[in-house]
Write a structure and sequence with these properties.
Urease, subunit C, domain 1, TIM Barrel, 2 domains, globular
Amino acid sequence: MRIIRAAKVLTGRPGEVIADGEVAIDGATIASVGPRGSAGDADEVLELPGHTVLPGLIDAHVHLGFDAKVNPVTRRSGESDHHLLLRMAENARKLVSAGVTTARDLGGRDFLDVALRDAIEEGLAVGPHLLVATRPITITGGHCWYMGGEADDEPAIRRVARENLRAGADCLKIMASGGQMTPSAPPSWIRQYSTEEIRAVVEEAATRGKGVAAHAHAHAAIRSAVEAGVATIEHCSFFTSSGHRYDAELADLVAASGTYVCPTVHGVYWRLKEQVGSEMIDAWLSGVAAMREAGIRLIAGTDCGFGSAGVDNRADEYVAGLEVFAQTGYSNAEIIELATVLAADACGVSAVTGSLAAGKRADLIAVRGDPLDRLADLRNLALVLVSGRSVTQTGVDTVTSSVG
């Protein structure tokens, strides 16, 4: 057994801070959490004065192998599966370099995400625990159709869902609305699937004990996602043909349902404002603030892996996305909660990670300073453990773009 001692331990439970605390680890599992000396003796003791230990961060929406430059005719950008898998592995390493110990990959091609997930668990690659959705379910020619999950009616939807689950998907992803990055697809404000069709995916996932993430920008798509019983709504941007139009009544419906929303708040917010203008970007952020006020349960997810308006959303800029949440009125404690405890619950893994407690996976980070006082201290990583394994990547140069 080994013990990590720090000036503060944040367990993840709201308001629980252990001053001069320690975490005891037995292999891949947390043995105990408490004040200094509570765990007794250990073979190895790591003293971290001036540091804070807290649960590993969770990115609930990533695309390790997303390719924004795919040719809609050839379905490829010239990047082979072999090359793409290597880039995905590098992106996984970048996530760990930002303190992310669990990530949900919500869309990739050819089941490469399954291969990478398994390689990380085997110790063949460095990265966070991955929850993979494999091919997003979408209409023919719909958003991200080139990833291979096209389905136009309920029987086809169930078939693709079952194929994804058979391949090893940890969750399912459905494109309930169109998107902005697929030229052939309906625009973001158009619903792609009915409530009944989305419910078919929810039913298929439930047979394996899995959840469903619904990509939904359009008002009708958001409503259908709630009515169908998805686990999380991605983006939830209240998009119309004339831009973002927040709907308080619809937001109240989402809040009452208890459905988690991942608004994909990312660190390129400020750079996108410079590129596309502040009106659209500020309207989006105002919508995030309004959802908070409405009582919607928001979680952290960056949508890293895309490029928009010449700006890359990199896999190692996770903390910058958390800093954007601060612009909407969240306190640092609330932000850490939505990046750990709440994100774990939304992704269906709260029994094993997301907080520091005996019996849970030893997924934790140690940072110099105190992120409750200064959120940027989350960048000062001294230690990253994934299932008790040290995978700290601080100072490793980033050598390739996160985007295809």
